[in-house]
Design a protein that fits this description.
Blueprint: H1 2-46, H2 52-66, H3 73-86, E1 94-96, H4 98-109, E2 111-114, E3 117-122, E4 127-133, H5 138-142, E5 149-153, E6 156-157, H6 163-170, E7 177-184, E8 187-194, E9 196-199, E10 204-208, E11 212-216, H7 224-237, E12 242-246, H8 255-263, E13 271-276, E14 282-286, E15 297-301, H9 308-318, E16 323-326, E17 334-340, E18 346-355, E19 371-372, H10 391-400
Parallel strand pairs: 11-12, 12-15, 15-16, 16-19
Antiparallel strand pairs: 1-18, 2-9, 3-4, 4-5, 5-6, 5-7, 7-8, 10-11, 13-14, 13-18, 17-18
Helix pairs in contact: 7-8, 8-9
């Protein structure tokens, strides 16, 4: 009897243990399945071989299902587009939001409200770099110099890849102020600058010794070629015998304006430029008008002479119409087009590379001067150099005498 009781108790204990084990096992399987289900839906939602639209749609489903906060669809869409474009790795191809397009087009045409600076994305440093302040602009009067890095605008830091956004923040209402923090060497400086309406009228001229004409402009904007022609004809009426074109710190602009100026120097039908697209199709740009300038010409360049400046300098050098004095140019030999999308946003996209009339590559190579001349170390900026210290200008004058 005692033995039966012990056996019965043993069976009960074993049953309890077995039930506990089964419960543990089922619970373990359930927990495993739970974690499996928490992880598996992502791969099933995203998939491995879907196009970008399908993939983004699946990620959207994940966020809608799991994300704790609110989802702003417009911000997500804009961020996705920007990331998609930036992943190309081309610093000149960029998405421009609907809000920024108006400002961007005004910049291109040469009229805007801001502080008056030309900027470039320094991809090596991932910083926004001042190419040059516009002459007599609030930026120049405040003391902004070529080469300065813009670190922040109104207390918000920006990287080089965020140049378009920073540019839109620098602009604003007329007579309002913006605070710019810049890095100059190892020194950080802060400037509070009042915005003004900037009307870029870049073409200026004067007569130097020995009846040498001098024309300078800081960008190729709408009507620059016509302004250049008018300035030349004014100087010619005063008896100039040769000409210096100063493209130092000229960051470029509208390619067609550079081609129009080149047209003034060459015979109708001569090749000015080759444009090559992604399929290696070649478009030849030729002079359309009879030349109106026939005299010795020197072009001044430096490391900040870029894009359309290089088109003009490279063309006239190759065709034997001008000598180049100064330092090697920037090396931007690719062309961007601005496409306006149906929602009002835009895409600035690199569409062609260009070659000089002798089919020399410019991109990442630049134009080599005929005479390499550096400015003295004591000169901080070509914008503020006095004529007596301007070794590049003096060399050009010497060559034209």
């Amino acid at each position: 009897m005692e033995e039966k009781t012990r056996f019965k108790a043993y069976k009960i204990i074993m049953l309890v243990i077995l039930v506990a084990f089964i419960t543990f096992l089922l619970t373990s399987i359930g927990m495993y399945q739970y974690f499996l289900n928490k992880n598996m839906p992502i791969s099933s939602l995203v998939g491995d071989n879907s196009d970008i639209q399908e993939t983004l749609s699946r990620y959207k489903n994940i966020l809608n299902k799991y994300y704790l906060g609110d989802v702003d669809e417009e911000k997500l869409k804009e961020g996705a587009i920007k990331g998609y474009i930036e992943a190309l790795g081309d610093p000149y191809t960029e998405y421009i939001s609907k809000e920024d397009m108006k400002d961007y087009l005004e910049d291109t045409m040469g009229n805007f409200i801001g502080i008056g600076i030309y900027m470039v994305e320094n991809t090596k440093e991932d910083k926004i770099q001042v190419l040059a302040p516009i002459k007599n602009s609030p930026a120049e009067k405040a003391g902004i110099l070529p080469g300065d890095f813009i670190i922040s605008v109104d207390g918000v830091e920006y990287k080089g890849s965020e140049m378009s956004v920073a540019s839109s923040k620098i602009k604003g209402k007329e007579e309002s102020s913006v605070t710019i923090e810049i890095l100059r060497g190892t020194e950080t400086k802060t400037f509070e600058i009042e915005r003004e309406k900037i009307i870029v009228n870049p073409v200026e001229g004067k007569i130097l010794e020995n009846n040498i004409g001098y024309i300078v402009f800081s960008s190729f904007d709408e009507n620059t070629a016509e302004d250049f022609k008018n300035q030349f004809e004014e100087l010619k009426s005063q008896g100039i015998k040769s000409l210096i074109i100063d493209l130092r710190n000229n960051g470029g602009g509208i390619v067609q304006e550079a081609l129009k100026i080149a047209d003034y120097f060459v015979e109708k039908g001569e090749v000015l430029l080759y444009e090559i697209d992604k399929n290696n199709n070649e478009e030849v740009k030729k002079a359309k008008e009879d030349k109106i300038i026939d005299m010795p010409v020197i072009i001044l360049t430096n490391e900040n002479s870029a894009s359309s400046s290089e088109i003009l300098a490279g063309c006239l050098k190759d065709l034997g119409k001008a000598k180049i004095v100064g330092t090697k140019t920037f090396g931007k030999g690719i062309i961007q087009n601005i496409l306006t999308l149906p929602d009002g946003s835009g895409l600035k996209v690199t569409t062609e590379k260009y070659l000089t009339p002798k089919k020399a590559e410019i991109n990442e190579k630049g134009i080599e001067p005929d005479e390499v001349v550096e400015l003295p170390d004591t000169v901080k900026s070509v914008l503020s150099v006095e004529e007596k210290d301007d070794t590049q200008l003096k060399k050009a004058i010497e060559m034209l005498k």
